[in-house]
From TrEMBL:
One of its GO terms (molecular function) is DNA-binding transcription factor activity. This is TetR/AcrR family transcriptional regulator. Residues 47-66 bind DNA. Pfam families: TetR_N. Residues 24-84 form the HTH tetR-type domain. InterPro entries: Homeodomain-like_sf (IPR009057), HTH-type_TetR-like_transc_reg (IPR050109), HTH_TetR (IPR001647). The keyword DNA-binding applies. Keywords: DNA-binding. It comes from Nocardia bovistercoris. It comes from the Bacteria.
Length: 213
């Protein structure tokens, strides 16, 4: 029997605070199987026995690494969140101007989500669940994302970010969720070049308006 589901906000909170070592090769293989299985049936329907089958490993091996479903889901959330944050950080670090960092963060986030099998399934089969990330019980995750964008807009400037900066950050975060749940035809979210052109034309003016000089 599957154990009770863990709230997404709790999973990602643990993922961002977990300082444990990266999984070994066997654990990585099991997590890969869990990601593939979740992409096929949905995370809520993930079963340990199906992960065992998909991994090609023995049942004892899988359960030795992850004795319960919750432990496997936590490990999955930790690894995939780290990968997401790494992708976004790489985008941010590729430029210096705060407004450009917002653009590259947006492009990196949408690109990662577009290519990730679990997130793609979530957007295709349950778009409402993507939008729900901005509401309880996952509102703290959305708030953390908005706070991150606000810090990028404010940069290293003294004082607290302005109210307008928080407004813009909130718009950017909601735009990201909307682009996953209800992708537009123009720009084509499958094309990073088009995403970047959109972000430069639309997001940079908004960012520059609230970025301290």
């Amino acid at each position: 029997m599957n154990s009770s589901p863990v709230a997404l906000s709790e999973l990602l909170s643990r993922a961002t605070s977990d300082t444990s070592a990266a999984p070994d090769a066997t654990a990585e293989r099991i997590i890969d199987a869990a990601v593939a299985e979740s992409a096929a049936v949905g995370l809520d329907r993930l079963r340990m026995e199906d992960v065992v089958r998909r991994s090609g490993l023995g049942r004892t091996t899988v359960y030795r690494r992850f004795p319960t479903r919750d432990e496997l889901v936590r490990a999955l959330a930790t690894r995939e969140t780290r990968r997401f944050l790494s992708a976004v950080s790489a985008g941010i670090d590729s430029v210096e101007a705060p407004s450009e960092r917002v653009v590259e963060a947006f492009v990196a986030a949408v690109s990662f989500a577009r290519k990730h099998p679990m997130m793609r399934r979530m957007a295709e089969t349950a778009p409402g669940s993507v939008v729900d990330l901005a509401h309880a019980p996952d509102a703290e995750l959305f708030a953390a994302g908005t706070a991150f964008i606000t810090r990028q807009l404010h940069g290293a400037n003294p004082g607290e970010p302005s109210r307008e900066a928080r407004w813009v950050a909130d718009v950017f975060a909601r735009l990201f969720l909307t682009y996953l749940a209800l992708p537009p035809v123009d720009p084509d979210v499958r094309d990073d070049t088009e995403l970047r052109a959109f972000a430069q034309a639309v997001l940079i003016p908004m960012a520059e308006r609230v970025t301290p000089s």
